[in-house]
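Possible regression after last week's pipeline update?

I re-ran a chain I had predicted before the update to compare outputs. Posting the input and the new output here so someone can diff against the archived version. Not blocking, just want to make sure nothing changed silently.
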Amino acid sequence: MFFGLNPDQKSCEGLKLFVIIYIGVALFAGALSAPIYWLVQWIDASNSTETTRWLLGKRLDIYFNRITYAGILLMLPYMMKRCGLFSVRNLGLGLSRLAAARFAKFFAFGVALSAAVFACQYAFCDVARSPEFTAGALPKILGEAVLGGVLLALLEEVVFRALIMRCFYTAWGPVWAIVCGSLFFSYKHFGTPNSLWNELAKNMTPSWDAGFIIAWYDTIGIAWDFTPVPFLSLTMFGAVLCLLYIKTKSLWTPIALHAGIVFAIQVYRNIFSITVCENTKYFGGAGMTNGYMAFAALSVIFIALWFWKPREDSMQ
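New output (post-update):
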């Protein structure tokens, strides 16, 4: 519970704070997207480098997304302090031998779950070894996948589970926290789709209002060519992570599962190339959570977790 409240108390203050920050960060990114692009143009005109040319090749919605991430990181300490989460214990990030063992176990489970889905993709879909992959590159691929997986999982779990889900938890209780938290988690993984952006880009120039236009379409973009299976799979994945956090009272558990899956995805994408085919809808593509199989597996895991009763001495 936020603000030191007891379990029988409820408060929407955290939820209000989250909504204000969410809208504020979107406006912040909308206002700065075009000016930062203009700054890169000015630097490139006076001293063109490979970096500036690379940045100018990026779509304007990429600028919007990166500025959004920066805004979230800037506001994260403030929101954590306001909600009473400015300690590793309150976040559920206490370090212990038990926490390390739990992390290893759920990281391995995430890798195994992804490997099972990818093995079916390899057997039934159009998957082949990437021509760019070499055995000598494997150590680098594994190292980058571990680092990237852990960092991404840590950031997303702090934001989506420790903050956003607990906003709903403090306001409405655990069931609505799982439902709303997992729906929002899935929703935020769908930005401006390529098909919509290609239409926008025909007439869009980096004018002062371009960032706000992108903010609008980033908000409603999920409805454009909506794909229910990936959305439902990501929602179920978020629900599993929420339930793990609630059951174990430790953020290391969802971080570990999340990191294991991201690690497996990154390794898989670097070793194999996946072509969309008839069976892709069943077993997914380069992402683990965009097929019927992943949704079914995550649903079974969620049901098992719902009835799981961890020992009291295994908490934290």
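Follow-up from reviewer: compared with the archived run. The CA atoms of residues 236 and 298 lie 6 Å apart. Marking as no regression found.
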